[in-house]
Amino acid sequence: MKLLITGGAGFIGSNFIRYLLKNYPDEVLINFDKLTYAGNLENLKEFEEDARYSFIKGDVCDANAFIEAAQGVDAIVHFAAESHVDRSIHSGHEFIHTNVFGAQVVIDAVKELKIPKMILVSTDEVYGDVDAPKKSKDGDPFKPSSPYSASKAAAESLAIAAIRTHEAPIMITRCTNNYGPYQFPEKLVPLFITNLIEGKKVPLYDGGTQIRDWLYVSDHCSAIDLVLRKGTLGEAYDIAAENDPEVTNREITETVLALLGKGNDMIEPVSGLRPGHDQRYAVDSSKIRSLGWEPTVTLKEGLVSTVTWYQDNEDWWKRVKSGDYQHYYQQHYQTS
Ligand code: NAD
Ligand code: DAU
Question: Is pTM beyond 0.90 here?
Fold first, then answer.
C-alpha cells in the first residue's frame, strides 16, 4: 500500500509513521507536512535514508500542491491540524484555516483523484464534556467548547457531507488524550515532565479536577491502523482507553511528580488560562473494540515509559523548547 500521511512530522503522525514502517516492511509512505512550530523532522530522522519513506514540505490548504503529492496513493491518513486548545482560545484563525479549509482540500483531492480511502483523524473533544457516568458515542450531537474542537467538528461535518453527497470513501476516528514520546512540550504530560526535569513548577489549571481519558500514543496508532485495514467506509470510530477508575488532572500530575521524585509543592495552581474548560471527556469505544482493537499499555506503564523517554531524550526537547529544532529542515533537506 502507498500511503499519504498529512501532519507526519507532529506527535501522533510521526509515531504513526514509525509504527507502520516497523510493522509493514513493504509499505510506502509519503509524509506531507507544513512544518509549523509543532512539526519536527527530527522525530523521524532514523528513516531519512529509508527508501520506503519520503517527505514533502507542503500546506494542506494549498490544493495544487496537495493534489500533486496525492497522485497514485491508495489511502490518505489526515492528521495535519493545529492541535492545542489553549492556543486556539487566544487566536482561532489558523485553526479554522488549517483544520477546516485544509480538511476540505484533502476531501476534494480524494474525490478528484478517486483515492480509495481516507481517514480523518478527529477528536473526542467534538462531543464536548459529559457528566459521569455517561459516555459520548457515535451519533451523539457535537457540543464543542473551543475554537479547536469547533474546527474539528466542522471538518467532520464536511467529511459527513462528502460521504453522503459524493459517496466519498472516508472514515473518521475520534480519540481521547494521547501521551508518549515526541509530544510537543505544550500539552500537559510533556510540559510537566520537562518542567520538572528543569526544576520548574507545573501550572495545574482550575484545581485539577478535570477528567481526561489518557491513551498511550502507540495504542492510538494501532487503532488507526485497524480502521485503515478493517474499518467500514463512511463510519466513525471512537477510540479510548476507558481508564477505570477515571483519572483527574491532579492525579496524573501527582503520578508524574512521584515518578520524578518531586513533591506536590511543585504544583502551581493556575486559573483563568482556559476559559470554557471542559470538565470531563469520556467516550464509548465498543465499536472499534468490536473490530478487534484494545489498548495494550496501562496508564502506569505508559507514564513510566514516557517519563523515561523524556529523561533519555533531553537533547530532543531542549532543542524544541529553545526553538533550535526549527533549523533542522534547512540543514538536512535543503541543499541551496
Ligand atoms: P501536533 O500539533 O503534534 O502535529 C500537527 C502536525 O500537523 C505538525 O507536524 C504540523 O507541522 C502539521 N501541520 C499543521 N498545519 C499544517 C498544514 N496547514 N499543512 C500541513 N501540515 C500541517 O498534533 P498531534 O497531537 O500529533 O495531533 C495530530 C492529529 O490528531 C490532529 O488532527 C489532532 O486534532 C488529532 N488528535 C490529537 C490528540 C492528542 O491527544 N494529541 C487526540 C485526538 C486527536
Ligand atoms: O481529547 C483529545 C485532545 O487532547 C486532542 O484533540 C487535542 O489535540 C490535545 O491537545 C488534547 O487536548 P487537551 O486540551 O485535553 O490537552 P492538554 O494537554 O492541553 O490539557 C489536558 C488537561 O490538562 C486539560 O484539562 C487542561 C489541563 N492543563 C493543560 C496544560 C497545558 C493544565 O492543567 N495545565 C497545563 O499547563
Answer: yes
**Domain layout of the chain by residue ranges:** 2-183+214-242+276-297
Place of cell 490544493: 63
Of 210, 231, 222, which is closest to residue 273 (Cα–Cα)? 210
Cβ count near 64 (within 10 Å) = 9
Looking at domain 2-183+214-242+276-297, what is its CATH homologous superfamily?
NAD(P)-binding Rossmann-like Domain (3.40.50.720)
Contact 153, 302 (CB under 8 A): no
Beta strands 211-212 and 247-248: pairing type? antiparallel
Beta carbon of 85 within 6 Å of any ligand 2 atom: yes
**Average pLDDT of the segment spanning 195-204:** 97
User: Is 204 near ligand 2, meaning CB less than 6 Å away?
Assistant: yes
* Enclosing H/E stretch for 58: none
Is 137 a pocket residue for ligand 2 (Cβ < 6 Å)?
no
**How many angstroms is it from 12 CA to the middle of ligand 1?**
7
Bridge partners (DSSP) listed for residue 119: 77, 171
The ligand with the least distance to the CA atom of 206 is 2
In 171-327, where does DSSP find H-type helix? 188-197, 217-230, 249-259, 286-289, 299-312, 314-322
Distance 53 CA to ligand 2 centre (A): 31
Which of 78, 83, 126, 66 lies closest to 103, judged by CA?
78
**Confidence category of residue 329, pLDDT binned at 50, 70, 90:** confident
